[in-house]
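Hi L.,

You mentioned the student needs an example of a multi-chain input paired with its predicted structure. This one should do, with 668 residues in total across all chains.
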Amino acid sequence: MTHPLIQISGLEKTFSSDTGWFGKWRLPGRKGRGKTDQIFALNGVNLTIYQGETLCVVGETGCGKSTLARSIMGLDEPSAGEIHYLDQRIDHLNNRQRMLFRRRMQMVFQNPYASLNPRMTVYQTLSEPIAFHNPQLSRLDVDEQVETLLESVGISANSSDRYPHEFSGGQRQRISLARALSVEPEFIVADEPLSALDVSVQAQVLNLMMDKQEEYNLSYLFITHDLAVVEHFANRVAVMYLGRICELANTSTLFSAPKHPYTQALLSAIPRLDSTAADPIRLIGEVPTPTEKPIGCVFQARCPYANPRCYSETPDMTLQSDGSSVACHAIEEGRL
Amino acid sequence: MNLLSVEHLNVNFHFKKRELTALIDVSFNLKRGERIAIVGESGAGKSILGFSIVNLIGKPGYIQSGTIKLENKDITKMNLRQLQEIRGKRIAMIFQDPMMTLNPVITIGDQLVETIRSHTKINYKDAKNIAIEKLRNVQIASPERRFDQYPHELSGGMRQRVIIASVLLLNPDIIIADEPTTALDVTIQAEILQLLLAICRDNGVALILISHDLGVVSKVAERTLVMYAGQIVEEGPTLEIINDPQHPYTQGLLNALPQMALPGQRLNQIKGSMPSLAERPSGCAFHPRCPYATDKCRTQQPEFIYSGVSSVACFMVEDMLSEFSQDDEGSL
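Structure written out for the whole complex:
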């Protein structure tokens, strides 16, 4: 592992429902304004992404993994905390300042049906960022780049005048990847890029992503809930729960020796092909919605090992002997 | 005796200018209390097959030929009144998205009671007791309180539990579950699968699980049917299909799973993608993507043949088997 590319420290994001006019409306028979609901999506995330690595973020619905991705890309402005790209701080940038970084970091979204403009041909979709970021290029140069780009993701160049609806899901996701690669970025955030695809097509897209990583020395932040993909693709894994990272480890370490009680439950729940696998660890209840700022450990309500300390004190990430970091009082105290 | 037997089922979609074939010559049997799975990628026709079993195919689709027999009564020839006797009472369905299945403006309790009372003559109070009992069976905590809640007040996993409870109300013989856990998180998925399995075992209910996830299938089903482009290409015991797949498509599907390759290595992809109904290839529908395709595969449709414990529709397997038996004769 080489230099840190992105450093995130103490990142917090709170969504408030009080932004719309409807919430401010006084309904007849109701006193005062409606109560503001707040969702605490990220509660102090610290994370470092190194150059050339694939970092996977896993977690269940509502754990804040997409918010983390969007905050890094500047699509959501963080409420607190800092994000550094190499040595520059990139949160709170205005659009003009951010432009420089848009070239260097790109995003691939979950749903290729929604993330490609249905009214633009593939050529238009791909040529726009190239021409915008390289104004010195002639029309012919742009054409040539679009052509090589399309060929490189396995789509024939003569279909460049077709519209997104004429392609299958896997092809569309490859076009999305081509669009992200068109500005030659160093870093790509992929938010569940495979979940809308079938198994055989998933393999095609995943292979393509690995090829491109080798070709351009890309770094990936890969967000997914599919742990089989993580095991195959990631160098390091961050497990998220309710807006906090609860375990961060090398992929092989995490899968062979998961430490945090949540990680253990999550891994045991994967439906594996071999029938010998043990029964999944049952968790009590489901992921709560973080409408209140969590006090203590975020996993307390579902954790079988929780004690009074877990309800009052927030566990810090502590380095373990095998190189993984875990935020858990039970492990720290040697109870687990 | 078979509880359900589907024979030579063909389902077509009729449009003004053309006729599209969604299911071609699908045949399978289901015994009482048996759990089978239908596996395939999107567009394989697995959901169409699920809907056809209860004759829920809406226009422009229709059952072109074939029979679906539920204990010797042909579902394809029933009128609406007869179908209503079967739907829910004999064969119940669970769909992928629990939020779409539940009515958002009616409380859970009223929906459950309505289901019971539309099929049996029973007063509200008794029906309510049955509903609460069933909610308890699917491990919903404090069912009396949940009874008066609306679907939006429950989480996704809880909603799917309510659906399973509603399916159990009329004690059906067969449950068809169409991707019941696809919309759920892994930890919740594991719980719902265990629940479904326990319910089928305890009550002797037969299950048809429709899924794209071979991991899920291996946990629940005893027998698996693999579908490709509207046809069943392989059928056999689930363990056999996972450990020793015969059809090149099943092999490809299993090999494409990330756990089948070494970490960091390229995955074994199947080239191309599932053909749409309008562009069905001639001969064996899988031949454009098949690494072993020959001229015969391009022109002729392979027959279903029995190989050991599973049945496969593939010329390559057929040839291998006939060579094998010739060798046997030679040595004798």
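You could point out the following to them. The interface with chain B takes residues 60-61, 168, 170-171, 198-204, 206-207, 210-211, 225, 227-229, 231-233, 251-252, 265-266, 268-273, 275, 279-280, 282-283, 286-287 of chain A (CB under 8 Å). The two ends of chain A are 30 Å apart (CA to CA).

Best wishes,
N.
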